What we know:
globular
Amino acid sequence: MEKVHSNIMSAASSSPLSPCCLMISSIGIGGSSWLVKFLLKKIGGKEGFTDFENAEKRVIEKKDVSFVVVRPAGLTDKKGKGKYSLITKPTIFFPKFRLRSDVAKFLVDCISNTSYDGKVIMIEGV
């Protein structure tokens, strides 16, 4: 998986189109919530978090490719509300779950709204 990710980022950096990498990660990565990370590692395994951490690191370190890393606070399939609630600092607890369709809308909006470029964004339900 690491080789695939490296290949994607290398192709993006050599593209004349100035692509933006939109990555869905996980709350608990990068110090966003030590408690969430601890609990999810117990449930889902350490390897999954290591993969997310390595992928985020590659995206963030690739300075010639614009990026937005999104760390949703859990995902549900309920009907979306079309609203974003951003978490601006690390948290201990599980924030409200985020609706998949709202995360998708946020990612689509990031295509034309460059104010989040180069940032790691945590979002939760409203």
